[in-house]
């Protein structure tokens, strides 16, 4: 509860600071302070210390899984603000308000990681989405940004409609919005309640849309491409991971009602997601858009957690969320500094900015899933969960083949940075920024060698 | 009233909304169609809430079963209102820049 | 054919026809007006289902606030039949209509065989469940209010965050940054 | 004793090292002295060993485990017995003479190349010694490949000339073909009895089934074919004449090429028990003898003639081995070593005098210019032609008798071959030494007898090839005067038990001998008359042309083996590798690229179509979930 | 402690080397650290002979059942020695080569060495996988940073190809892991895992493809010639000298003992493939005009023999393979050194442009001939012993296969002598007209190699003995 509460309050604080404090750079420090505070609060709650006892009437149910994810989300946001906070100030005039929205998104994340009724899920998703529409469109003069915002908004609200339809049908079947309740008054030949199935497939579609799983991914490349890079980084990492957590929480409870068909559907979605994400990414010319597709591809891997819902996959999704978020935040932080977002823009970066090139390589390795990076363990856990389930090995094989293909477009960046000639123009790089990146890379490698540091949290 | 009537009615309205979203290109109209979908859902929810109330009434005279359905509708309206404000703001912003509300007018982002 | 059914059929027909008109009418303003009639019809249904509170809110919020907002925007952009963008090909329309229709068919077909919507009537005859009309006081404002502020207080409070973000958003988007 | 034995191969090796490492600093005379000196020392030790063996039997000297695994153990051991000690004498003895000869023959070379030459020569002697001294097949194989290497190096000694290099490579590769057979045979033996040591293998001879023995012996014989230039693997030997003449004398006449005979003589017992193989050996040998002889009839290069005659003589030796006349074969090895080395060295002396002119059509009348060479050469010709009482007569006769015992047909063909030998040898002699000089004037001007370093070895060898025959006087002259047979008896004793030695009556043997001798004299006279006055040479036609072109065998091989292999290699390299192996991989890559280009078009930037796809897939999902029972069972049946 | 040092020293010195700017210093540092590694591995062998336990075990991922377990057995000894011998030689031989950003170059070389050490040492499957990848990454950078003009595409092919393989292997690893009773990656646990024949053959292929790509076996070799051709020669030496052995080693350590039945079942196919590969590669080598490509193909042929000998599954063959891994490494490095010397001097590797070098550089010629003879496995060179044993093993498997495979001996003679002749014999070409003797460092390294070749050729027994225990361990698991 602390997360939800304080993120909301901090949002309000930021809001007031927007007309109390006039110094633009100040907002960043306030935000950082707030995030730290939030982090502490959440960790406090994770270790069983509740600040104030609110009876949520079972609307929310806080478990270690969700709380731990909150920690990761907040921590990633903190890192994100530290690395890219300066660039947020370059977007539009009202910086403080942007931070407000970020805090509200965190509030939504807090909800979605602990919801217990479909109502809260719905609210959570909306509280996350609406700020994102705005962040996408926050670069008002930029037509790309406009277009992205419009597309995102229309499709987003459409998917909201789909989700609501699903919820309604589910309500009709169960007579309640609590997620783990079973359908009522069932008799007859069918093993499962058809209405529940339909309802769930509607919800599945809308959730798949939010996590940009094919064939509901179409908004992703355009929106990520159009939105200001700073916010793309935020959307593509923390938010997406959060929605995954909600996704998993929901279908942990509901998947059993769907019978075996469930795995068939998810398998299809996984394969198509991996296919679209990886294959389309190969031909991109802009690194930013490539990263959009890569985020689709990574989502495909995260979907394994839904395919096999066991302990392994739950730890895995956390690890994945963390590894993926860190790496992508880092890559975007560097991307923002680049003048030219195409692959050619990176040519010869290793000569002019060796540190940036090196850490960027680490991030990319993490995304490919090379051992000694956190990304390896992310993929490892996902594959392991399937192998452990001893079903659908063919799916795993397809997945690894696509993972190998993904090396193609990730390595294009590395090749550009190291093996191609050229002198890329970058914005001025502050030492603090460089330092932050190095810390981030070190973190990734550390987790790559000792994933237990992270996992043990789940076992205490 | 048999619940099927309501379901079919709501589903039809919903699908009309979907068709609208698919066929119209005026951003505002598309958005209105989304609103139509939401309303269909609202109607369905209310119908279900009354259904559950009815079936619970058989056993318990003072039941409040099904009331949460109507509460949910209330929240949907809340969200819808919020969405509309943001949505229209975005549409207006776009109109300001390109003087069109055609959703296909801006097509820089593709492939 | 009881009065209730007559009212039901009338409202349903009205809702469907005006919904279709929303799509068909070239002039956005007309679409808005048609949509308002849809909302009125739905509010009628709410009253029929004895959910007065929602009926009123529906009229105030939707037909009242939201639709007026829409109208404002349309007027502001002085949209009319001429400015309305024409979709290039009939095929897109057709595809849309067909897919929408098939969605309807799939859903309805599925719902009809659903076992949650039927119950054992007299002599174990399977009869569809009823949506209670014209009775039941759960839709009354006091009951709703009670539940809303006890069980649903958390979501209620949280929805304020939603509004805040919407507000901030509107500000960010709407405000002209002078430069 | 072991150390003494070890010295025999070690000395040449040391010579090789010294000459090899300090080639830059050594003067001609120094390296010459070192090179020949070590061989001389080795020869001395060999004599000691020979006597030791003669008095108290063979010795086996173990040194260390070369390879020792569970399946088998291969010690690095030498076996000095009658056979090997005899070969030791031949190798070191003739080797020494040829080293001495070379000091004069190669004196035009630059010092470092001179040293290189002697290094190679010593290395050769070393490997050859390993070959004959080894106590098991593996050590023999080591020497076997070693001599192959040295012949490669020495043929290609003048490495600037690419034809020489090709000849060298050809020799090495063709030997390799044989070596493969040899190697397989070794594997087979090891797999069967788990040892390669002669003594143990021959002791365990009855563990082999008939087929196995046939197989092994055949494979060994393939090895022998390669090394001893038998059909069909003989073509390298004539080309090997590219090397310096002393090399031809040492390697391609006296020693290396007889390795095959040594091997078979060594494992005679196996061949005796495998009659089928012996039959093949005899036939191949005989065929080679005739075939090579026919070619030799029409060759004009002095060394080529000798080369083909070598091939044909080797054929005789195999004939002997095939028909079980092992002693005869070894005897012929020895005598042949004498006179063929003599002939080659003589030829070398001629070539030396003629300034590297090798075409006998441009020679003639050298008799008066270089008397010693002439006399010795003549003796050599008589010896090889088998004129009594020269050495060749006895050895060849013994083989022919053996052939007659096993199959008269062999005998008659063999005799025919002997006659041809006489003919082409005297054609060669006559054209070279008799008549008038046909070369250029300045050649004639420079004609002179060779220095003593060349003539002395000639004389020594001449004496040997005259008297060498008396080591093996057949029974008809006097009972067991055949020293060699008695000496070698322990080696072939086992085999002789198997072969029912039915000696034909002396009368028939006398008749045969007389008849053959008579015929040989006629042939010699004919050749003498035909060629001694020859002035001008018209082009060969018909069969003559075919013979001159060596039956076109090289061309045949080239077109049925070399060219196809090259074609296949080229096909693999340029077509298969690129289009199939590589193409598959790159094809996948290209396919991905292509599909990427197509797939991204779906992303057409239009919200309507996006949502359309969403709706459609929603429908699909609903259907899947509704019909899941059907679908899942279908999938089950699929996987 | 020795195994740890073997990994740690190259790793740390590699990381340090990144920060060395001065070329001389970088070279010196690399040479020094590699020599230290060499000393340690030699020491390891001596200690080993006194039967000291050379294992190190530490907790790594308790929750996953993966431990940091490394150790040295006979086979490991040989390969670590090869790895440790190769590096100083390579550094010495290429001492005069100039690389831009040398610190990074040598750092990556050392990291590669560390990775390979890890592969040869690890007793834990997951650890093995880690090092397997760790060895690949620096190699990738080396090739595509300092390579030839087509380097980027070629090396990327190499990377992806091997990466696919290792990912498939990862699936196999996981599968085995969940089949182990106590969910552990430890060597023994993996050895004891029991699978149904269906599972076994499936997982077998997942592993084998990874190894086959690394070795490489016939249809999977396409990355190899291009990579060898394009990489800087120092890296090529590492790749063909040591890294290729990783595949063979892995087969011996992780494939044969774990899937005995599957190995039995598929040995025939694999042996046939290998033999095809031998002849195929040899025939291509005959037609090569490029020195590096020729060596690459000849290396494919040799590897094919090793693979065939492994799957013949008998003791002699396996011992042959183990010592041949070392010998082949030495020989091929020798050939590369000459190739490098020639390319540096004349800027070409095409035979058609070379020739007559024996007049100009006799010493180089002699040394190269020694290498060439080792390449054709002439007796009294080290390769002979290995090939003798391997063919022996193959013979015990089947005589006809051996006969066909034996053809490659002949072909080897053909293409090797071709190479010798076209480079060193014949008349000098315009290019080689004013050539002179090779640089001293090249000469000395080659002399060292030649000595090793001859010594091991004459007295191979100690090394053969070194293989005993590993072979027995493997044989014990077969059937």
Secondary structure: elements and pairs:
The complex is a heteropentamer of chains A (460), B (111), C (179), D (639) and E (479).
Chain B: H1 3-23, H2 27-57, H3 67-98
Helix pairs in contact in B: 1-2, 2-3
Chain D: H1 2-21, H2 28-56, E1 59-68, E2 73-80, H3 82-105, H4 111-133, H5 137-155, H6 162-193, H7 198-203, H8 210-227, H9 236-239, H10 245-254, H11 259-266, H12 268-273, H13 275-297, H14 302-322, H15 326-353, H16 371-385, H17 391-406, H18 408-433, H19 441-446, H20 452-467, H21 483-498, H22 506-532, H23 543-548, H24 553-599, H25 607-626, H26 628-638
Antiparallel strand pairs in D: 1-2
Helix pairs in contact in D: 1-2, 1-4, 2-3, 2-4, 3-4, 3-10, 3-15, 3-20, 4-5, 5-6, 6-8, 8-11, 8-13, 10-15, 13-14, 13-18, 14-15, 14-17, 14-18, 15-16, 15-17, 15-20, 15-21, 16-18, 16-20, 17-18, 18-22
Chain E: H1 2-17, H2 23-49, E1 55-61, E2 66-71, H3 74-93, H4 102-121, H5 125-146, H6 151-179, H7 187-192, H8 197-214, H9 223-230, H10 233-255, H11 260-286, H12 291-312, H13 315-346, H14 357-360, H15 362-375, H16 382-397, H17 399-424, H18 440-458, H19 461-477
Antiparallel strand pairs in E: 1-2
What does this structure look like?
The complex is a heteropentamer of chains A (460), B (111), C (179), D (639) and E (479). Chain C has 179 residues and is mostly helical. Helix content of chain C is 69%, strand content 3%. A two-stranded antiparallel sheet of chain D has the order 1-2. Chain D is built from 26 helices and two strands. In chain D, strand 1 (59-68) and strand 2 (73-80) form a beta hairpin. Helix content of chain E is 76%, strand content 3%. A two-stranded antiparallel sheet of chain E has the order 1-2. In chain E, strand 1 and strand 2 form a beta hairpin. In chain E, helix 11 packs parallel to helix 17 (399-424) and helix 16 crosses helix 18 (440-458). Chain E is globular. The two termini of chain E are 35 Å apart. The model of chain E has no long low-confidence stretch (mean pLDDT 89). The chains are: A mainly alpha (460), B mainly alpha (111), C mainly alpha (179), D mainly alpha (639), E mainly alpha (479). The interface between B and C is large, with 75 and 83 residues.
């Amino acid at each position: 509860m602390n997360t939800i509460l304080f993120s909301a309050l901090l949002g309000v604080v930021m809001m007031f600071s927007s007309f109390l404090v006039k110094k633009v750079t100040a907002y960043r420090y306030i935000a950082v302070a707030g995030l730290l505070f939030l982090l502490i609060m959440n960790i406090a709650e994770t270790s069983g210390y509740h600040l104030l006892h609110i009876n949520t009437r079972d609307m929310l149910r806080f478990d270690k899984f969700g709380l731990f994810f909150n920690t990761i989300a907040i921590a990633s946001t903190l890192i994100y603000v530290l690395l890219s906070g300066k660039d947020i100030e370059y977007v539009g005039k009202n910086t403080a308000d942007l931070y407000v929205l970020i805090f509200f998104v965190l509030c939504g994340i807090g909800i979605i990681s602990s919801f217990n009724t479909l109502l809260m899920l719905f609210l959570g998703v909306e509280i996350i989405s609406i700020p994102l529409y705005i962040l996408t469109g926050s670069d008002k003069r930029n037509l790309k940004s406009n277009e992205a915002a419009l597309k995102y908004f229309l499709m987003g609200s459409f998917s909201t409609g789909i989700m609501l339809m699903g919820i309604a049908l589910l309500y009709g079947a169960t007579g309640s919005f609590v997620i783990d309740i079973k359908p009522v008054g069932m008799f007859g030949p069918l093993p499962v309640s058809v209405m529940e199935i339909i309802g769930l497939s509607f919800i599945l579609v809308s959730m798949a849309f939010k996590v940009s799983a094919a064939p509901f991914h179409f908004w992703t490349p355009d929106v990520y491409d159009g939105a200001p890079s700073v916010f793309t980084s935020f959307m593509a990492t923390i938010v997406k991971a959060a929605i995954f957590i909600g996704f998993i929480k929901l279908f942990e409870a509901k998947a059993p009602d769907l019978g075996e068909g469930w795995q068939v559907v998810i398998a299809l979605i996984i394969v198509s997601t991996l296919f679209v994400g990886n294959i389309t990414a190969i031909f991109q010319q802009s690194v930013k858009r490539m990263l959009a597709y890569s985020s689709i591809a990574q989502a495909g891997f995260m979907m394994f957690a839904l395919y096999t819902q066991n302990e392994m996959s739950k730890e895995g999704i956390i690890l994945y969320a963390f590894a993926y978020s860190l790496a992508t935040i880092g890559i975007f932080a560097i991307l923002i500094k680049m003048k030219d977002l195409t692959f050619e823009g990176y040519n010869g970066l290793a000569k002019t900015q060796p540190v940036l090139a090196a850490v960027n390589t680490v991030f990319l390795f993490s995304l490919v899933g090379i051992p000694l990076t956190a990304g390896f363990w992310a993929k490892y856990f996902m594959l392991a969960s399937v192998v452990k389930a001893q079903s659908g090995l063919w799916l795993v094989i397809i997945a690894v083949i696509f993972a190998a293909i993904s090396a193609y477009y990730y390595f294009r960046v590395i090749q550009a940075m190291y093996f191609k000639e050229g002198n890329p123009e970058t914005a001025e790089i502050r030492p603090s920024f460089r330092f932050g990146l190095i810390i981030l890379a070190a973190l990734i490698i550390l987790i790559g060698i000792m994933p237990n540091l992270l996992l043990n949290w789940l076992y205490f | 009233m048999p619940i099927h009537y309501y379901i079919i009615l709501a589903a039809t309205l919903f699908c009309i909304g979907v068709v609208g979203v698919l066929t119209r290109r005026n951003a505002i109209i598309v958005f209105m169609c989304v609103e139509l979908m939401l309303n269909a859902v609202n109607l369905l929810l209310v119908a279900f809430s009354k259904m559950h109330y009815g079936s619970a009434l058989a056993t318990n005279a003072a039941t409040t079963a099904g009331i949460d359905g109507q509460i949910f509708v209330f929240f949907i309206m809340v969200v819808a209102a919020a969405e509309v404000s943001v949505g229209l703001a975005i549409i207006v912003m776009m109109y300001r820049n390109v003087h069109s509300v055609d959703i296909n007018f801006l097509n820089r982002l593709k492939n | 054919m009881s009065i209730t059914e007559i009212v039901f059929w009338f409202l349903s027909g009205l809702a469907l026809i005006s919904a279709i008109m929303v799509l068909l009418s070239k002039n956005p303003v007309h679409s808005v007006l048609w949509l308002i009639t849809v909302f009125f019809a739905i509010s009628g249904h709410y009253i029929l289902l004895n959910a007065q509170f929602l009926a009123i809110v529906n009229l105030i919020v939707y037909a009242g606030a939201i639709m007026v907002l829409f109208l404002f925007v349309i007027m502001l952009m002085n949209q009319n039949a001429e400015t309305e963008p024409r979709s290039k090909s009939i095929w897109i329309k057709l595809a849309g209509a067909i897919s929408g229709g098939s969605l309807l068919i799939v859903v309805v077909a599925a719902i009809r065989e659903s076992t949650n919507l039927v119950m054992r009537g007299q002599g174990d005859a399977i009869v569809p469940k009823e949506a209670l009309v014209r009775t039941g006081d759960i839709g009354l404002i006091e009951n709703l209010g009670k539940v809303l502020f006890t069980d649903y207080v958390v979501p209620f409070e949280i929805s304020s965050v939603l509004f805040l973000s919407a507000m901030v958003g509107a500000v960010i988007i709407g405000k002209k940054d002078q430069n | 004793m072991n150390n003494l034995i070890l010295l025999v191969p070690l000395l040449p090796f040391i010579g090789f090292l010294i000459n090899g490492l300090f080639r830059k600093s050594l003067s001609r005379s120094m390296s010459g002295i070192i090179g020949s000196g070590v061989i001389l020392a080795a020869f001395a030790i060999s004599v000691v060993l020979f006597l030791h063996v003669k008095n108290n039997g063979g010795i086996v000297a173990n040194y260390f485990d070369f390879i020792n695994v569970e399946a088998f153990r291969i010690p690095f051991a030498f076996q000095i017995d009658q056979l090997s000690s005899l070969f030791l004498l031949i190798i070191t003895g003739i080797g020494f003479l040829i080293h001495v000869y070379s000091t004069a023959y190669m004196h035009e070379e630059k010092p470092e190349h001179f040293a290189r030459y002697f290094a190679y020569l010593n290395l050769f002697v070393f490997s050859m010694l390993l070959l004959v001294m080894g106590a098991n097949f593996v050590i023999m194989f080591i020497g076997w490949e070693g001599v192959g290497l040295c012949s490669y190096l020495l043929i290609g000694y003048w490495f600037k000339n690419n034809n020489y290099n090709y000849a060298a490579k050809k020799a090495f590769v063709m030997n390799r073909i044989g070596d493969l057979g040899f190697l397989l045979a070794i594997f087979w033996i090891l797999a069967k009895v788990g040892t390669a040591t002669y003594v143990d293998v021959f002791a365990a001879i009855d563990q082999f089934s008939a087929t196995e023995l046939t197989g092994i012996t055949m494979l060994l014989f393939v090895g022998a074919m390669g090394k001893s230039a038998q059909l069909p693997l003989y073509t390298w030997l004539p080309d090997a004449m590219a090397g310096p003449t002393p090399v031809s004398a040492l390697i391609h006449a006296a020693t290396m090429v007889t390795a095959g005979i040594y091997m078979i003589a060594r494992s005679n017992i196996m061949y005796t028990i495998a009659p089928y193989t012996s039959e093949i050996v005899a036939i191949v040998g005989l065929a080679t003898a005739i075939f090579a002889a026919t070619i030799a009839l029409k060759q004009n290069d002095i060394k080529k003639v000798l080369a083909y005659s070598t091939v044909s003589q080797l054929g005789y030796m195999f004939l002997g081995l095939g028909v079980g006349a092992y002693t005869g074969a070894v005897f012929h090895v020895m005598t042949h070593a004498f006179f063929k080395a003599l002939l080659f060295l003589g030829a070398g002396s001629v070539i030396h005098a003629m300034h590297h002119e090798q075409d006998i059509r441009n020679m003639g009348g050298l008799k008066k210019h270089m008397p010693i060479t002439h006399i010795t050469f003549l003796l050599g010709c008589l010896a090889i032609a088998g004129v009594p009482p020269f050495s060749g007569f006895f050895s060849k006769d013994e083989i022919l008798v053996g052939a007659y015992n096993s199959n008269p047909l062999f005998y008659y063909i063999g005799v025919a071959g002997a006659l041809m030998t006489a003919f082409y040898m005297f054609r060669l002699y006559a054209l070279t030494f008799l008549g008038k000089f046909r070369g250029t004037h300045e050649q004639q001007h420079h004609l002179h007898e060779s220095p003593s370093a060349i003539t002395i070895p000639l004389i020594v060898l001449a004496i040997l090839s005259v008297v060498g025959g008396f080591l093996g006087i057949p029974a008809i002259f006097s009972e067991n005067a055949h020293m060699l047979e008695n000496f070698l008896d322990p080696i072939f004793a086992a085999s002789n038990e198997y072969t029912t030695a039915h000696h034909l009556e002396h009368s028939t043997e006398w008749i045969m001998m007389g008849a053959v001798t008579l015929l040989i004299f006629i042939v010699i006279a004919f050749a003498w008359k035909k060629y001694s006055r020859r002035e001008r040479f018209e082009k060969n036609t018909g069969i003559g042309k075919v013979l001159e072109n060596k039956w076109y065998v090289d061309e045949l091989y080239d077109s049925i083996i070399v060219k196809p292999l090259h074609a296949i290699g080229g096909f693999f390299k340029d077509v298969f590798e690129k289009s199939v192996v590589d193409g598959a991989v790159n094809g996948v890559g290209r396919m991905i690229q292509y599909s990427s280009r197509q797939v991204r078009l779906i992303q057409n930037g239009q919200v309507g179509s996006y949502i359309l796809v969403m709706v459609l897939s929603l429908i699909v999902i609903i259907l899947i979930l509704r019909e899941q029972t059907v679908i899942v069972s279908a999938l089950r049946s699929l996987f | 402690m020795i195994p740890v040092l073997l990994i740690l020293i190259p790793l740390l010195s590699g990381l340090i080397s990144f920060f060395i700017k001065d070329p001389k210093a970088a070279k010196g540092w690399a040479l020094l650290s590699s020599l230290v590694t060499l000393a340690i591995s030699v020491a390891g062998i001596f200690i080993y002979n006194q039967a000291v336990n050379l294992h190190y075990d530490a907790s790594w991922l308790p929750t996953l059942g993966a431990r940091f377990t490394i150790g040295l057995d006979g086979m490991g000894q040989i390969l670590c020695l090869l790895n440790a011998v190769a590096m100083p030689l390579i550094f010495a031989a290429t001492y005069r080569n100039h690389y831009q950003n040398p610190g990074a170059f040598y750092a990556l070389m050392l990291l590669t060495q560390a990775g390979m050490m890890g592969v040869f040492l690890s007793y834990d499957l997951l650890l093995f996988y880690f090092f397997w990848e760790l060895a690949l990454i620096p190699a990738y950078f080396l090739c595509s940073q300092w390579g030839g003009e087509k380097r980027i595409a070629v090396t990327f092919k190499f990377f992806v190809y091997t990466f696919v393989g290792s990912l498939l292997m990862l699936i196999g690893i996981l599968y085995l892991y969940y089949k182990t009773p106590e969910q552990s990656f430890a060597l023994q646990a993996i050895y004891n895992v029991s699978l149904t024949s269906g599972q076994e053959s499936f997982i077998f292929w997942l592993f084998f493809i990874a190894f086959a790509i690394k070795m490489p076996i016939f249809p999977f070799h396409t990355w190899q010639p291009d990579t060898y051709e394009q990489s800087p020669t120092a890296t090529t030496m590492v790749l063909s000298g040591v890294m290729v052995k990783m595949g063979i080693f892995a087969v011996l350590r992780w494939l044969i003992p774990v899937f005995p039945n599957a190995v039995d079942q598929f040995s025939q196919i694999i042996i046939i493939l290998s033999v095809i590969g031998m002849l195929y590669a040899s025939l291509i080598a005959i037609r090569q005009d490029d020195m590096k490509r020729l060596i690459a193909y000849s290396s494919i042929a040799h590897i094919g023999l090793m693979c065939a000998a492994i799957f013949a599954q008998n003791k002699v063959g396996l011992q042959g393979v183990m010592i041949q891994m070392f010998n082949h490494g030495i020989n091929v490095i020798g050939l590369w050194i000459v190739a490098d010397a020639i390319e540096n001097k004349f800027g070409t590797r095409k035979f058609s442009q070379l020739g007559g070098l024996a007049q100009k550089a006799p010493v180089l010629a002699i040394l190269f001939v020694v290498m060439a003879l080792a390449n054709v496995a002439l007796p009294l060179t080290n390769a002979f012993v290995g090939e003798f044993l391997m063919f022996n093993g193959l013979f015990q498997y089947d005589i006809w296969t051996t006969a066909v495979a034996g053809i490659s001996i002949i072909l080897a003679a053909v293409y090797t002598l071709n190479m010798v002749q076209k480079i060193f014999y014949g008349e000098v070409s315009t290019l080689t007209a004013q050539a002179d003797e090779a640089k001293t460092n090249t000469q000395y390294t080659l002399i060292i190699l030649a000595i090793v070749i001859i010594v091991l050729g004459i007295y191979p027994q100690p090394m053969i003995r070194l293989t005993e225990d590993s072979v027995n361990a493997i044989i014990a698991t077969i059937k």
